[in-house]
Design brief:
The protein is an all-alpha fold and about 290 residues long. The chain has 14 helices and no strands. It starts with a helix and ends with a helix.
Length: about 290
């Protein structure tokens, strides 16, 4: 397991640095720029009054309580689960399905390594990679805060990072599970991407239409605090995101232990289904007559 973990983490170092440094620089830019709005806050509120109020309600933004940090929350943290979700979905669906479609997974399992060790070694590497990316993003925000007056300490900024990480881990685990259930990695990625977009808009529309509040409770974005976690992390909401993620990982492992490994390429629905649920294959006419 640990050999798999080290190999997989080393294989992901390029993506860790690319995503982590990229988001860190973006965070440094935003956290330093939005503090300049403090001096023009009255003019900014006046200008925003000419925009449709529904637009700000969609993002949960109240003009009356607008602050530089709240504006940072809307422009940066509210989008992080979707942006970093791109990495998470790719890492989750590719963890096993990529090697399987390349024809490498059956060769790897031919060596003295169990499916359990392979699965959890790769899963642990993906989790550490996401933690490192979020840590680099936090470092970038802290660097930008040194040049700003957001009235938030680096320690307080850990709360939003935990909220981001919990949401991203959920998307990663869902991608992993669907890659074990659906015929191809491409189909699993599309399904999770659709769920991310749908969840985001359901949460936003619920701010406009109270009748959608019940449906919005099913959206992970409802339990994502974002920048507001700097002033008090809702542990219950974090648990509400982490527990389903853990369940998805265990279900994916259970499915991986029991599924047939393809030699190469994408599979069909017959391969995705358990053996007892697959449709019976009809023998050619010549074989039936021979019997």
């Amino acid at each position: 397991m640990w050999a798999t973990f080290r190999h997989e983490l080393a294989h992901m170092r390029g993506r860790i640095l690319g995503w982590g440094l990229g988001l860190g620089l973006l965070g440094a830019y935003f956290s330093s720029v939005f503090s300049s709005f403090e001096a023009q806050m009255a003019q900014l509120r006046q200008a925003m009054e000419y925009f449709p109020q529904e637009l700000f309600a969609f993002f949960g933004l109240d003009i009356a309580s607008l602050t530089p940090y709240r504006f940072l929350d809307v422009k940066f943290f509210s989008l992080m689960p979707a942006i970093l979700g791109v990495f998470a979905v790719g890492a989750g669906t590719a963890m096993l399905a990529r090697d399987e479609e390349k024809g490498l997974l059956d060769l790897i399992l031919a060596h003295p390594v169990s499916r359990k060790a392979l699965f959890f070694g790769k899963a642990l590497a993906a989790l550490v990679a996401m933690v490192l990316i979020v840590a680099l993003m936090w470092a970038g925000l802290v660097v930008g805060m040194d040049r700003a007056s957001l009235q938030v300490t680096p320690t307080q900024m850990i709360g939003p990072m935990v909220s981001v990480l919990a949401a991203v881990v959920l998307w990663w685990s869902l991608g992993l599970l669907l890659s074990m259930l659906l015929p191809s990695r491409r189909m699993a990625s599309s399904a999770v991407a659709f769920l991310i977009v749908a969840s985001f808009f359901v949460k936003g529309m619920a701010e406009l239409d109270p009748d959608l509040k019940g449906i919005a409770k099913l959206s992970p974005f409802t339990y994502y605090q974002g920048g507001q976690a700097a002033f008090g992390l809702n542990v219950g909401w974090i648990v509400g995101l982490v527990l389903p993620a853990a369940a998805f990982v265990l279900l994916a492992w259970w499915r991986f232990e029991r599924r047939d490994i393809r030699v190469a390429g994408e599979g069909g629905w017959g391969v995705a289904l358990p053996a007892r649920m697959r449709p019976a294959r009809r023998r050619p006419a010549e074989a039936r007559h021979a019997v």
